[in-house]
Design brief:
The chain has a single domain, classed as ph1033 like fold (Roll). Helices cover 23% and strands 33% of the residues. The chain has a 6-stranded mixed beta sheet with strand order 2-5-4-3-1-6. It contains 5 helices and 6 strands; from the N terminus they run βαβαβββααβα. With 154 residues, the protein is an alpha+beta fold. The radius of gyration is 15 Å and the shape is globular.
């Protein structure tokens, strides 16, 4: 059974439009253990709310899907890459990632202020730990956010 997630990116770094253009991407560069563990728990076919942080207001902008389960983030081993981690070992990688694919961009973004104000979303991780870049979403929360965007369940 599919699970639900929210993944954050800055619109000026990798936007929903970038994902739409590329079709799919590896979600590299996560350097937070809780976010990494969330990606390790993802399964092919899981649904992802695509969230733009660092815009006003921050908002859920679209929908993506996990297409490849967790594998070691190759950027951690490349000394020339900004996500290089000298303490990571290829035999015991520290950082993992998943691949996601574009599903659709919402006509109506769902802003963080609206999420915080919505009854039933008070316990959402986004409301209580807004800095976590990869986070679980309960099915009821996922459905509510989709309804707020004028979208139907996939």
């Amino acid at each position: 059974m599919a699970k639900y997630w929210l993944m954050k990116s800055e619109a000026d770094v990798y936007s929903i439009d970038d994902l739409k253009k590329d079709g799919r991407t590896m979600w590299d560069g996560v350097r937070n253990y809780q976010a990494r563990n969330n990606m390790k728990a993802m399964e092919k076919g899981d649904w992802v709310l695509y969230y733009h942080s660092r815009q006003t207001p921050s908002a859920v902008t679209g929908l993506a899907r996990v297409v490849k389960e967790a594998y070691p983030d190759p950027t951690q081993f490349d000394p020339k890459h900004k996500y290089f981690d000298a303490k990571s070992d290829e035999d015991d990688p520290r950082w993992w990632l998943v691949d996601i694919e574009f599903v659709r961009k919402f006509d109506e973004q769902v802003g963080l202020p609206d999420i915080k104000a919505r009854k039933g979303l008070a316990d959402m991780v986004l409301v209580n730990n807004s800095r976590l870049s990869v986070q679980p979403v309960r099915k009821a929360e996922f459905e509510t956010v989709l309804k707020m965007a004028g979208e139907a369940m996939p």
